[in-house]
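Usage example:
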Amino acid sequence: GENVEQHPSTLSVQEGDSAVIKCTYSDSASNYFPWYKQELGKGPQLIIDIRSNVGEKKDQRIAVTLNKTAKHFSLHITETQPEDSAVYFCAEGYGDSWGKLQFGAGTQVVVTP
Amino acid sequence: DVKVTQSSRYLVKRTGEKVFLECVQDMDHENMFWYRQDPGLGLRLIYFSYDVKMKEKGDIPEGYSVSREKKERFSLILESASTNQTSMYLCASRAAGVNTEAFFGQGTRLTVV
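Running the assembly step on the lines above writes:
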């Protein structure tokens, strides 16, 4: 699979501020872009995903935007809370029945009260 | 509540030992995956399986093998453990079909001494 670049690697924000994580991909065949949250001592868990026919998707305080032309997608967390502290992974998928996902390196988000 | 269960949270093994990591899912998913998680490298795919007795290499299969004798169980085997295989290992499963959600186990922290 192709690489997925994720930035930043660490992100420290004040409670109530917004957090943005960006990912870029290189495979134009990619059509599925999920975001996973991994809390300490747990496995990653899906928090939101977007498909290539959609430019933006929102779920309460979380939103994801996709720019297929530029091959990048971003996670936006508004009104951050201490429980948002975790490692976040972006991923890209190819829509095949095997369901392979290529993951970014992860972003450690720390929300300080 | 859907579940992917990994048999051990922590393992310590000696160099040269044969190591088995077990994963069981209760969702009747066709696809199962083994990832390795290292700081700064994200999740890297070792092997995956799309059916009983079927397996495919991922991005970093060297030094590993897998077994899927039953649909619900996917085992990762380190034929001769080495110190560079010290890592967090994550199992995941997904239903067949396009862009289905991946569910992860809690991870196995393996230390090879």
